[in-house]
Amino acid sequence: MARPDMTLSVVGGIHPNADGGNRLFEIALCAAGEAIQLAPEPKNKHDPSAVAVFSARGIQIGYLSAERCGWIGSKIRLGEEIRAVFQAPEKGGALIRVSFSGEDPVIPPSRPAQTAGRSPEWDDSFYPDEIWPDA
């Protein structure tokens, strides 16, 4: 039985690439559904189980989070076909969607953002003018 698609965090977006490239800028250029490449880095001096994440343009956008890189990296090294696509930007990084079935991953529908304590009907675009109130 195939494993279900997973959403994974990409971390380290705030750090520059070795060539000075800006990861957050590259993340901003990524579109939902765009192909992502995963590359294990067994010679990484900080973490030999690190898995680098590259955009469709071949620019590194970060690394898989430490919780998942060992497991995902081992699957890649064993030759399992893992496909990944960009899902969404996130503060300091991104979310990607991976599939273990050999098919392109399916991005789940996004949930509407809500501010804590506010109902969905709240209209943030209305601000009364305190100096010149309506008559």
Automatic annotation (TrEMBL):
Record keywords: Hydrolase, Metal-binding
InterPro entries assigned to the protein according to its UniProt record, in alphabetical order: HIRAN
Protein name (database record): HIRAN domain-containing protein
Biased composition (Acidic residues): 122-135
One Pfam family of this chain: HIRAN
Organism domain of life: Bacteria
Domain HIRAN: 30-76
Keyword rRNA-binding recorded: no
Region entry Disordered, spans: 106-135
